[in-house]
Design goal:
Number of helices: 8
Bound molecules: zinc ion
CATH class: Mainly Alpha
Distance between the termini: 48 Å
Helix content: 40-55%
CATH topology: Butyryl-CoA Dehydrogenase, subunit A, domain 3
Number of domains: 1
Strand content: 5-15%
Largest sheet: 5 strands, antiparallel
Structural class: alpha+beta
InterPro entries: MOB_kinase_act_fam (IPR005301), MOB_kinase_act_sf (IPR036703)
Shape: globular
Keywords: Metal-binding, Zinc
CATH architecture: Up-down Bundle
Radius of gyration: 19 Å
Protein name: MOB kinase activator 2a
Pfam family, one: Mob1_phocein
CATH superfamily: MOB kinase activator
Organism: Lates calcarifer (Barramundi)
Length: about 260
């Protein structure tokens, strides 16, 4: 009962795998707050505040963006989207990377969860968040540019391990997104990039849900945000309802496009 562990196995090429330990109920929770420098408490999820969740750079139904188009091969679609998400999440992280240091983020945290790396021999490796993100990005870069795994030449087949490797990439990219919200949302807001982060996150979550690429047990730590951001905006009503009784108001009803 002291800890809820979510073990996720490394898939495919035998490289790295990761373990996430939810310390919400654990007595070791204090270890998630190195030096008390980054003590993001449950009650301080700034990114859930409506003034931030309503900010996107697009406001159309992302589901339409992720469904497999007719005449497109599934693996080609997964490869194209996964590569794009890797590039965009890498770019989004780079905007705050100067604030994500071994001092500020001594562990890779997100919502009271710490992610650990395991080396190629399965040995648990403690690392700082920037080290972890570097592992993620290096691994993703290696995989998406490997012609044997993400073939770009006409007629070249995808390997049998392709889907499991895509899942592995998406799982790691989710960790980076979760860390961005958990540890660097303030800096993201200061840079006025929260609309981009919200849109990227929602697009990513809708995509991985569509193709079951990340175990819901992995993404559940961010379900509160996902439910807000991934709810499609309702069609524009002819007249705004003056009072909405009973059910909770939908935050997405306030969606609008932020121009930049
Ligand atoms: Zn960080």
């Amino acid at each position: 009962m002291l800890k809820l562990a979510v073990e996720v196995q490394g898939a495919g090429d035998g490289c790295l795998c990761v373990e996430a330990i939810d310390l919400t109920l654990g007595q070791r929770k204090s270890k998630t707050k190195p030096n008390g420098k980054k003590p993001p408490a449950e009650e301080k999820k700034q990114y859930l505040e409506p003034e931030f969740t309503k900010i996107r750079v697009v406001d159309f139904d992302l589901k339409e963006l992720v469904v497999l188009p007719r005449e497109i091969d599934l693996n080609e679609w997964l490869a194209s989207n996964t590569t794009t998400f890797f590039n965009l999440i890498n770019l989004q992280y780079s905007t705050i990377s100067e604030f994500c240091t071994g001092d500020t983020c001594q562990a890779m945290t997100a919502c009271n969860t710490i992610y650990y790396w395991y080396d190629e021999r399965g040995k648990k490796t403690k690392c700082t968040a920037p080290q972890y993100v570097d592992f993620v990005m290096s691994l993703c870069q290696k995989l998406v540019t490997d012609e044997e795994i993400f073939p770009t030449k006409y007629g070249k087949e995808f390997p049998n391990s392709f889907e499991s490797l895509v899942k592995k990439i998406c799982r790691y990219l989710f960790h980076v997104l979760a860390h961005l919200y958990w540890a660097h949302f303030k800096e993201t807001v200061a840079l006025d990039l929260q609309g981009h982060l919200n849109t990227l996150y929602a697009h990513f979550i809708v995509f991985v849900r569509e193709f079951n690429l990340v175990d819901p047990k992995e993404t559940c730590i961010m379900d509160d945000l996902s439910e807000i951001l991934c709810t499609p905006a309702p069609p524009p009503a002819p007249a705004p309802a003056p009072s909405t009784p009973a059910s909770a108001p939908s935050p997405s009803s306030q969606n609008h496009v932020t121009e930049r």
